[in-house]
C-alpha cells in the first residue's frame, strides 16, 4: 500500500525547544492518517501544556499567517488542541480530517483572544 503524499513544511520547528513535545512528524503513518479532531482544553491544564499550545500557534502564525495551508507534516495531536477554534478548515464543505492534504487556516479573531501574546510585535518564541 502506497503512503499518501505529505507536504513537509521546511523551516517549521520540529518540536518545542528543549522538550520531547513534537510539532511535526517525520513520515506518513503507515497504519493510516490520524484524523484531526477538536480536543477540549480544560481550565486545569498544566501550564507547560498551555505554553506549548501558545508556542505551536505562534509558529503557525509566523509560518503561514492568514493564508490557507496544508496539514502536511504538522502533528495531528498538537493540531487537535487548536482545531475547531484557532485553526479551522479552509473550506468546511471540502474538508477531510484524515488527509495530509487537508487545507486549514488560522481564525485570527479567535486566536487573538486565546493567544494575545502571539500578536505582540516584539514577542519572540
Low-confidence stretches: none
> How many β strands by DSSP?
3
Provide the helix percentage: 10-25%
Radius of gyration from CA coordinates: 14 Å
- Biggest β-sheet: strands ordered side by side in the sheet: 1-3-2
Q: The biggest beta sheet, please?
A: 3 strands, antiparallel
Order of helices and strands: HEHEEH
3D shape? globular
Structural class: alpha+beta
Distance between the first and last residues' Cα = 39 Å
Mean model confidence by pLDDT: 91
Strand content: 5-15%
Continuous helix count: 3
Describe what this molecule looks like in 3D.
There is one protein chain. With 125 residues, the chain is of the alpha+beta class. The chain has a domain at 47-119. 24% of the residues lie in helices and 7% in strands. It is built from three helices and three strands, in the order αβαββα. The protein has helices at 47-64, 76-80, 108-114; strands at residues 69-70, 87-89, 103-106. A three-stranded antiparallel beta sheet has the order 1-3-2. The longest helix has 18 residues, at 47-64. The radius of gyration is 14 Å and the shape is globular. The model has no long low-confidence stretch (mean pLDDT 91).
SSE arrangement:
Blueprint: H1 47-64, E1 69-70, H2 76-80, E2 87-89, E3 103-106, H3 108-114
Antiparallel strand pairs: 1-3, 2-3
Name some characteristics of this structure.
125 residues; 3 strands; three-stranded antiparallel beta sheet; alpha+beta; globular
Amino acid at each position: 500500500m502506497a503512503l499518501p503524499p505529505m507536504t513537509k513544511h521546511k523551516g517549521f520547528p520540529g518540536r518545542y525547544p528543549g522538550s520531547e513535545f513534537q510539532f511535526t512528524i517525520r513520515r506518513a503513518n503507515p497504519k493510516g492518517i490520524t484524523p484531526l479532531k477538536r480536543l477540549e482544553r480544560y481550565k486545569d491544564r498544566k501550564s507547560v501544556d498551555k505554553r506549548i499550545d501558545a508556542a505551536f500557534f505562534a509558529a503557525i502564525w509566523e509560518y503561514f499567517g492568514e493564508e490557507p495551508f496544508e496539514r502536511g507534516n504538522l502533528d495531528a495531536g498538537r493540531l487537535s488542541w487548536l482545531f475547531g477554534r484557532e485553526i479551522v478548515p479552509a473550506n468546511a464543505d471540502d474538508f477531510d480530517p484524515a488527509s495530509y492534504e487537508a487545507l486549514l487556516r488560522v481564525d485570527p479573531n479567535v486566536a487573538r483572544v486565546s493567544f494575545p501574546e502571539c500578536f505582540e510585535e516584539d514577542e519572540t518564541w
